[in-house]
């Protein structure tokens, strides 16, 4: 009998599709990378998704975020993402959290409920909090490294954090994970050297970026705003979704410990 996931089942089989339907996955950050993760997981039959982000869709998101359209500008990103999920798979159980994951908000989330955690946020502090919590609870986690200021989508790789190179964010994360005793972390990163933006962001774009980073109402300090495209963050997000799905499938057949590289 045909259903919305019949073509996926041709590759994974009925047993794994049942495992997808029984899985709950948390995606922290529903922007350029995380939005595509959510999209692919919803289209693959994942049965429950927790989506976490306190940002609203703004005009400058339209160039790269799948949830961003003229119609969704001003909406909370998790609300826009939830609407898409329900249009794709009404049976998917969605829990939307309008919050940023930070050390002070992490107690809102029980990682033992999750079959997998996706870190698609931008702040180092938040990323480390997610990774430490997942490590403590023994929950599988995959983390997105930098996707800004890049134009070559073919240079993304899946690796352990300690096998990464070139990416400035990965360098910081290697150091901080080592300090915290994190012995392994699956990441998606690019070997492309970040490009320098042509010109500086104007005040309006700076303000929007500050709001997106949760700095609204604080003393505003100018910082470099990365350029981005429609095709680089989306590739990172789709790679992450594929890793999550294949790891869940591997667990069904006892092959989840495959080399991430």
Corresponding CATH architecture: 3-Layer(aba) Sandwich
Shape: globular
* CATH class call: Alpha Beta
Total individual domains: 1
Explain this structure to me?
With 261 residues, the protein is α/β, with parallel strands linked by helices. The chain has one domain: NAD(P)-binding Rossmann-like Domain (Rossmann fold, 3-Layer(aba) Sandwich), CATH 3.40.50.720. Helices cover 36% and strands 13% of the residues. The chain has 8 helices and 7 strands. It has helices spanning 6-12, 14-21, 34-42, 77-88, 124-137, 168-179, 203-212, 232-252; strands at residues 24-28, 48-52, 93-97, 116-119, 141-144, 156-160, 186-190. It has a 7-stranded mixed β-sheet with strand order 3-2-1-4-5-7-6, with helices on both faces.
Quick description:
36% of the residues lie in helices and 13% in strands.
Protein traits:
7-stranded mixed β-sheet; 8 helices; alpha/beta; 261 residues; 36% helix; 7 strands; Rossmann fold
Question: How is the topology of this model organized?
Answer:
Blueprint: H1 6-12, H2 14-21, E1 24-28, H3 34-42, E2 48-52, H4 77-88, E3 93-97, E4 116-119, H5 124-137, E5 141-144, E6 156-160, H6 168-179, E7 186-190, H7 203-212, H8 232-252
Parallel strand pairs: 1-2, 1-4, 2-3, 4-5, 5-7
Antiparallel strand pairs: 6-7
Helix pairs in contact: 1-2, 2-8, 3-4, 3-8
């Amino acid at each position: 009998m045909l259903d919305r996931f019949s073509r996926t089942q041709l590759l994974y089989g009925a047993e794994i599709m049942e495992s997808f339907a029984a899985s709950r996955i948390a995606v922290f950050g529903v922007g350029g990378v995380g939005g595509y993760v959510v999209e692919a997981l919803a289209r693959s039959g994942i049965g429950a998704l927790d989506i976490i982000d306190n940002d609203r869709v703004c005009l400058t998101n339209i160039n790269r975020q799948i949830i961003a359209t003229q119609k969704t500008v001003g909406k909370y990103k998790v609300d826009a993402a939830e609407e898409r999920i329900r249009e794709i798979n009404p049976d998917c159980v969605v829990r939307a959290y309008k919050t940023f994951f930070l050390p002070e908000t992490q107690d809102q989330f029980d990682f033992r409920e999750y079959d997998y955690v996706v870190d698609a946020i931008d702040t180092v502090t938040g990323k480390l909090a997610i990774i430490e919590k997942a490590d403590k609870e023994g929950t599988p986690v995959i983390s997105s490294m930098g996707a800004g200021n890049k134009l070559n989508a073919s240079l993304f790789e899946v690796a352990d954090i300690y096998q990464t190179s070139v990416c400035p964010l990965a360098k910081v994360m290697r150091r901080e994970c080592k300090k915290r005793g994190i012995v392994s972390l699956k990441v998606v990163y690019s070997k492309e050297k970040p490009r320098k933006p042509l010109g500086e962001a104007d005040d309006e774009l700076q303000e929007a970026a500050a709001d997106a980073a949760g700095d609204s109402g604080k003393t505003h300090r100018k910082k470099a705003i990365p350029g981005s495209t429609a095709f680089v963050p989306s590739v990172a997000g789709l790679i992450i979704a594929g890793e999550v799905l294949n790891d869940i499938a591997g667990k069904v057949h006892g092959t989840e410990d495959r080399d991430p590289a």
